[in-house]
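Reviewer 2 asked us to include a model.

Predict the structure of this chain.
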Amino acid sequence: MTETSLYIKIATELSVDVKQVKATIELLDEGATVPFISRYRKEVTGSLDEVQVITIKNEIERLRQLEQRRESILKSISGQGKLTEDLEQKINAAELLSTLEDLYLPFKPRRRTKATIAREKGLEPLATIILSQQTGNLFQEALSFVNKELEVNSPDEALHGARDIISEIISEDAMVREGMCVLFKNSAIIKTKVIRGKEEAGQKFEDYFEWEEKLMTCPSHRMLAMRRGEKEDFLILDIVIDDEIANDQIKKQFIKSKGECAEQISLAIEDGYKRLLQPSIEAEMRLMTKQTADEKAIQVFADNLRELLLASPLGQKSILALDPGFRSGCKVVALDAQGKLLEETVIYPHEPQRRVTESQHVVLAFCAKHGIEAIAIGNGTASRETEQFIRSIDVLPKSIPVIMVSESGASIYSASDVAREEFPDYDLTVRGAVSIGRRLADPLAELVKLDAKSIGVGQYQHDVDQTALKDKLDTVVMSCVNGVGVELNTASKQLLSYVSGIGETLAKNIVDYRNENGAFKSRKDLLKVNRMGDKVFEQCSGFLRIRDAKNPLDKSAVHPEVYHIVEKMASDLNTKVDNLMEDKEIRKKINLNSYITETIGLPTLKDIISELEKPGRDPRKSFEVFSFDDTVHHIEDLREGMRLPGIVTNVTNFGAFVDIGVHQDGLVHISQISDSFVDDPSTIVKVGQQVWVNVTECDVKRKRIALSMKGESTVSVKKSSPKVEEISYDANDMQSALAALKGKFKK
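Predicted model (structure tokens):
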């Protein structure tokens, strides 16, 4: 199949023009990234969005691999001298890799089988005679193949060997295999049962001790759960169909008459089905359903990760971050507005030390000294107790919000090379507390430092194809980073590495240049960085921001390649670019049609105007303060019927997990998400969403909490807390609070 044919095929599937597909693939082949193509090459692609570009990228890769395999198979069969015109047509018409492999199966180099041995004994002609079903005396035919030198000692042995050959021929027949695949898809049952003696050890798989359902309607989470149980040697898993129906289907295809030949073919079919075909097709079904389950699970993980990465940032605020603990104390760090560690210490407000007043003094002193504007508390052990302690400091200004922050993956970051490189002189607890504070300020910038798989927002992520998972998650991270944009002078090398075209090596070079030469003054300065060529600059520059740049366009998403367009707009209106960005009335005077060229069209011009209106705007939602119910701190505090605020921590195919502040997430089963039928939980709730839930069941011993969102007119939590953007800090208030606390000491 030619490249043009591939373009047509993809265009048809996506319902877009072939020219759009061709142009997109050419850009990809030249090294352009998906974010760059979808954002800055709209005229070339006909304004294809990111999802469409990714689809084209994945599909052309798949089709090219298919073509390579097709060429290899044709070459192999042709080299054997067995390539017929009919077979060649079938191979060229195959659209799936599995179809190609089925066609190639009879010609594939193989290990020594029963059929191979029978052929070595010269019994293939007898198999051909039987398959033709035209002989009148099969015994006489078989007798002629008796040959003691070849170890064929009787007609029965000859017939047995011929049946081995027929069994293999039929089991490798492409039409037979296709028919069996259809039969399995339509009627196969997946069954599991517990391995005798492992009932107690395998309690987590109790639901599958005696389980069966239709294979093709089995949801991905159950499929992966059953396969995990099998892998861990607790379950026996089988995929079964009605063998009699399967055998009859094959017999109808091959048996054309009655008689001795038909009997031999019937025996060969039954043997071949049981010994060769059924195990082979079951393996194919296992692989196919595993791939489908993987794809769905990976998509769930990707969707959750996107929501988590694009969670509302607090923004550049001075933050006091606490990593809570009981006996070991609470690690406290103060961070400036850029996330720099200013000071750290440990307080012991809880049992067994109970140094409450001293701890209050330390918190207030840190707040006063560093102008703290928000307090972040990790949601792990002792989190609610620490939150209660902070809120009990009655002289702490109410303008400072106290916010719970997810610790998921923070311990992995603390022990990582990234953390050790950034904080070589501090221990794990300090690094963890810093990460908690930075997550509040900018979740995206901090979470990119972690392996996405450790964030904990998927389902069965360790059971799916790890290469496919990594590729998908990397794509999501890149999409999020470039969609938000990156501040060039403060971004970590981990964040920079996800910017279009940059990668790890160049990200390090950028940070090294910044450390040696100071902050970048303009985007053009990037060209001074080692290994930053024109092509990479083209790919990355539009996604990088310089807040205090001399050229105001450097803080926007306007690409440097079209600066001259903006400058021409300003010149034509006898004004400056700054005024163009600040004055809405001036922008209204711009006639976009006047600036259309061969390479710049209305899509890019409209993007420019949109960016001039809100240069460098953050597409993420504004931050809203959230707090758990003050009367609930432990799972023992829960009662059926309670209505509580919570935050969605994970969305799966079977429901959503919600943190209600008791150190154990509750599950809102898919059947409890809405009053109406829900097919996909992600259409109703997202990771990080604030919701109201009702407690329907609480098993303290097993630490299981069942929640419901039924009966809620809205799933979003609405609170009267002010948005963080509106919070102001008054140092005099803090000094007064500190003085008041000192007054308590004297008393």
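The chain has 30 helices and 15 strands. The chain has a mean pLDDT of 92. We have added this to the supplementary material.
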